[in-house]
Amino acid sequence: MPRLKGHNRSSAAKKRMEKHLAAVVESAPQSSTSFVPPAPGPSRRGTGRRHRVSTWPVSTLTGRSHKVVIPAESPDKKFVLLVGDSHLRAIVDGIVEFPDEFLSFGAMSTPGACARELTIELVSAVLPRTPDLVCVLAPSNDLTASRTLDEAAVDFEKLLTSALSRWPKVFVLDFPPRRNVDLDLQELFRQEFHRVAARKGVRYYSIAEFFPLSRSDLWSWDGVHLSDGPGMGLLVDLLLFFSRQQLEMATVVEVEHSLPPVAPSPAPAPRPAPRVVVRGATRSPRPPHNPLDWTLVEPRRKRRCPSPQGGKVQLMECSIPLTPVWFSPPILEVMDHIRPGNLDWGEPTTSTKGPSGVKRHRSTPAPKKSRGNQEVELEEEWPELRRAVAEVPVEQPRRRIGSQRRRTRQQ
């Protein structure tokens, strides 16, 4: 598909813009330090005031300005040495002082130095006194001097190794944030420095949250260095606080190591069992229980009786009264004569009631008969039973005289 004229015009405009940008880059002055563009947000500039920079002697080892200030020896104060870059210039020049009664601070500052250059100056430094504590300010110049993050981590590890080889008590204070460098890049360097310090067993204190970018008076006009007023005052307060905290922790550790080891307490001796003395008549032990014995259960008491010999049980006579007789003896004799009560008699019964499981044959219903016919059949089948029934005296029911009298009165 052929392209339109607009595409050709756009390509020509892009080529002209590339040539223009290449000419601008070539005409720009070359700088040995490449700055990362700032992050979007607050202005790169600060509104604080910073003192005029004085001239310091140049070091022959690194070719940078270098100066060391050691306070006079005081037996009542502990000596703390600060090692860092240009952030300590105001402390070295005496613009900012440390109002502390128990600590005296000395500083070794190398403006513009990275971690590798600080290591060189630290190793070759000659101090008249041995510091009680050393504070290494994390090098913020590695943000622009180091090509990669791993390179900055290696240089910082060498710096801590050199400091620990000379003095046993060392801690690291985070660098103040910059306004002209990407905040995400600064956070990556902080995390890497913290990781290196943790591997070396050195305490690392972060202070980035104490310097909000919304307060432009904390920085000077360049956006890199802190102002002499609120900026350096805040940094000095943080140095005092963390130095005291680190010395207190070191004192506690020394006291714990100086104390003799506490011997474990011996296990308590086993206590003898109390001796029980029983006086009086002794109770005879219970006879062994036979599981085959019978148990008699009576109200509120229970006793056992021995089982009969041979395991046989003798039945006793029953004293329960029997059911009274409901038929007269003559009738029972006649019935026994007609239908003997022999249980072994094998004639099948025709009664409706019988043992369960016996199959009963239902007979065809017989036609209804009158009372006269029933009496004739009964007499033909059991003539003796009818005569015996007739001979049995029947007791006449008594009349209710009281009811008759009551009825007569009512009439």
Description:
By secondary structure, this protein is an alpha/beta fold. The chain has 11 helices and 8 strands. It has helices spanning 5-27, 89-92, 115-123, 142-145, 149-166, 183-200, 230-258, 329-338, 371-381, 383-391, 401-410; strands spanning 67-69, 78-84, 103-109, 133-137, 170-173, 203-205, 294-298, 301-305. The strands form 2 sheets. A 6-stranded mixed beta sheet has the order 1-3-2-4-5-6, sandwiched between helices. It has a two-stranded antiparallel sheet with strand order 7-8. The termini are far apart.
Computed CA radius of gyration, to the nearest angstrom: 61 Å
Largest sheet: 6 strands, mixed
Order of helices and strands: HEEHEHEHHEHEHEEHHHH
Rounded mean pLDDT score: 76
Helix fraction by DSSP (H/I, runs of at least 4): 25-40%
For the biggest β-sheet, the strand order reads: 1-3-2-4-5-6
Strand content: 5-15%
The count of strands amounts to 8
Shape: elongated
Structural class: alpha/beta
Tally of DSSP helical segments: 11
Distance between the termini: 140 Å
Low-confidence stretches: 29-42, 345-358
Biased composition (Basic residues): 1-18, 358-371, 399-411
Region (Disordered): 1-53, 342-411
Pfam families: Lipase_GDSL_2 (PF13472)
Domain SGNH hydrolase-type esterase: 123-228
